[in-house]
Fold ATP-binding cassette domain-containing protein.
Amino acid sequence: MQPELRLDGVGRRYGLRGPWVLRGVDLGVEPGSLVRVEGANGTGKSTLLRLLAGIDAPTEGRVTGRPRTAYVPERFPPALPFTAARYLTHLGTVHGLTRRAAARAAGEWLERLGAAGYADTPLTRLSKGSSQKVAVAQALLAEPELLVLDEAWTGLDADARAELERAVAERTGAGGAVVFVDHDPGRLAGAPDAVYTVREGTLHRRTGPATPVPDGPRVVVGVQGPPGAALPADARRVAASAEETGPGSHTLTVAASHSDVLLRTLLTARPPWHVVRVHTPEDHR
């Protein structure tokens, strides 16, 4: 079983006498959980994510239970001597895939993110948005146990942003953990299991109401589950409301912007759930 990643009394500073960026951080990231990290610019959010991803080592404290981790940095370095496909294939082999499996996964993720047309383009010639798609693809192609996303949606077009949200639902649905920072307060609103704020170099868990589901159009989804199965936790988190209408039957209401994530979560559950109907509340007025 995938281990729980734990930070106990972790602190980080740069240089022997540099100021502490983070100190006294205690955090557990359980398998299957979705964790949001918030905070003003310069408070240490990216440093925390680098510690979680294993990019930086703590100056003090302990990190235990290290899962297989993939990381999308805030700034992807595009000045590498590869085409997009070659780079992703290389990274796939680094993550333990065979070269054939890595090439196949690279093609699949470029296709899903709308970048298949750039597979043979050198990274140095890609736009910022296309480079970001490659950065996202390299983190997803080996199905990590922990996915760490530092402003990963920035620079992506609307379709790619939605695809990344679906990928997050797939990872948590498969038992992986996801930790993310994003400047949009509506990103995955209502879905995280925990929200933490970095403030003055320390980490605080939010205990008030969860981030509300954004205003706007809603979609109503009727589902039927396998006998005796509980509604998947990821589906319950994404939905604005869930009502059990009969044995194994539920009616879920979700923000239209999150409907694809909900449907993918239900259809990729093990065993999968059957979607009986999808409509908007206006359809029944």
In short: The helical segments are 45-53, 84-94, 99-112, 128-140, 158-173, 233-238, 259-267. The first strand starts at residue 5 and ends at 13. The mean pLDDT is 88.
